[in-house]
DNA sequence: CAGGGCCTGTCAGCGATTTGTCAGCCGCGA
DNA sequence: TCGCGGCTGACAAATCGCTGACAGGCCCTG
């Protein structure tokens, strides 16, 4: 899962980013409004965490512009405690949830999870594909009911493929979501990752369509 | 996704085309205004990248003529840095976005992605020609509803012919599209490819006009 | 601070699939 | 019927993806 964190206070930003990364998300950050707008408009994020007090361009304006351009990713807005005016305006602008500052990391994580789950359309917290079960809340994957010890990167890969089940995902897309903007890696890194995953989940958990990409679930040739 | 790149500097054009191709787009190029106008007026592109300084016919004029003829594909205009007059004029002429030169390839790609995403929904995702259906989004081809296992090259060929349905496409054009500017291959490679494809899609899916080229769909002899 | 273990990227070799090439055949159009 | 362009099946080359081994980096622990 790929997240954009928009926060101008560098210290807060790095703390929050650390927590989110530890929770298994791929986090990119923007520190001012223009950067945030550009990234949100051009990249595909699964969720945006948006602080309203920004230099350059107001957070609310950024959000409105995204929505005007049909960018519908879920947005979690960070507001000052009790500022009802902001919340009302935010609803109109298209925010999906609010978190008053200051907040507990625990609560932030819970809301992030909830928003992502909701946006995927899977109301349930688990995804089942054949013998493989992905518990998005516990970040745990089981095969035939037996929990598997996955590394963070492995988990992100199954999770992404699981959320996009029955669809062929091109390697470029996977790299973008796993590594963010960092394209330095050898293409083989992804292949090695898939191989390790198949060893844990069973060879048939993840399919390959030569020249096109990977997939989980059903898929006609 | 099919792109038209209009750029008179051959070196820049080939560099940019290479980057776009690597990003998975199907790129065609025009090097002067008249050619650009003709292609944009007669072919269906998902996006046009238009340099303004062109020999033959000014880029701005080309754009205006397209719009006057109800050609509404998104157009990304390349302007000289800071030339505000051009930008204002471009807005009136119907440009969708601007990129000041010189630019980073990264930024170009980001904007191309953004424009295409924005315009999605304006065009159908599937092309149906007789019993053959091309789902351009899933990169999947079906015959009578039965999905076929196509190789990447085979897919690119049907996809191209499908986008140019009812028109006879000369072999040279196909080779250019499939192999880029690399003409090292035997002309027979294309014939072999067509043969393999006909075996999968049915002999009548692709027609031959002796001495002219291949086509899908109806064609006026 | 050193040592060890885990995670992940890189490398090299292998096997399968895809694609190009060749040679001969077919059939359209004159 | 003839000749040429296009077709086809077989084979060879190139490419792609997989795998096991290895190494660097990071974190934890003593």
Task: Describe this entry's structure for a reader.
Chains A, B: Residues 124-218 bind DNA. Chains A, B: This is Response regulator transcription factor. The structure is a homodimer of 221-residue chains. Chain A has 221 residues and is α/β, with parallel strands linked by helices. Chain A folds into 2 domains: 2-120, Response regulator (Rossmann fold); 126-215, Winged helix-like DNA-binding domain superfamily/Winged helix DNA-binding domain (Arc Repressor Mutant, subunit A), CATH 1.10.10.10. The first copy, chain A, is 43% helix and 21% strand. Chain A contains 8 helices and 11 strands. Chain A has helices at 10-22, 33-42, 59-68, 84-93, 105-120, 152-163, 171-179, 187-201; strands at 2-6, 26-30, 47-51, 75-80, 97-101, 126-129, 132-135, 140-143, 146-148, 207-209, 213-215. In chain A, the strands form 3 sheets. A 5-stranded parallel sheet of chain A has the order 2-1-3-4-5, with helices on both faces. The first copy, chain A, has a 4-stranded antiparallel sheet with strand order 6-7-8-9, with helices on one face. In chain A, a hairpin with a 2-residue loop joins strand 8 (140-143) and strand 9 (146-148). The two termini of chain A are 27 Å apart. The mean pLDDT of chain A is 84. At the A-B interface, helix 2 of A face helix 5 of B. The structure holds a DNA duplex (30 and 30 nucleotides).
Keywords:
homodimer, 4-stranded antiparallel β-sheet, Rossmann fold, elongated, 8 helices, DNA-binding, alpha/beta, 2 domains, 11 strands
